[in-house]
Amino acid sequence: MNNKSLLLTLKLVMCTGIAFILIGIYLHNFSDTMEDLGVTGIIVSAAFVAIGMIMSIPTKMYLTFIWVKREADATSSHSKRTS
User: Fold this and answer.
1) Can you tell me the distance from the alpha carbon of 10 to that of 16, in angstroms, rounded to the nearest whole number?
2) Which of 19, 23, 37, 46 has a CA 20 to 30 Å removed from the CA of 52?
3) What angle, 0 to 180 degrees and rounded to 10, lies between the N-to-C axes of helices 3-30 and 39-82?
4) pLDDT, tens digit, for every residue of 5-18?
5) Which residues, in sequence order, are CB contacts of 52 under 8 Å at separation 6+?
């Protein structure tokens, strides 16, 4: 898997995770069905948020690491050209 497809996959996983978080928040705050389910509804909405966090946080960390490394490489190559 090359870098472009890896980055695209990671971005897709991160966006899906954020969507799961938003679905969980919507279900918890605005859904009458979840209120009718009681504790089970809370567990369902919390599961969406938890899965979303699991999917989005490590991906964000990895993408940040890649972008910082890319910027450091660009800065070092720029400083080599100017000296």
Assistant:
1) 10
2) 37
3) 150
4) 888 888 899 899 99
5) 16, 17, 18, 19, 20, 21, 22, 23, 24
Tokens of 56: 């989005």
**Is the whole model's pTM more than 0.85, yes or no?**
no
> What are 41-58's pLDDT values in tens digits?
999 999 999 999 999 888
For residue 2, what is the DSSP state? -
Which residue's structure tokens are 């969980």?
24
DSSP annotation string for 25-73: HHHHHH-HHHHHHTHHHHHHHHHHHHHHHHHHHHHHHHHHHHHHHHHHH
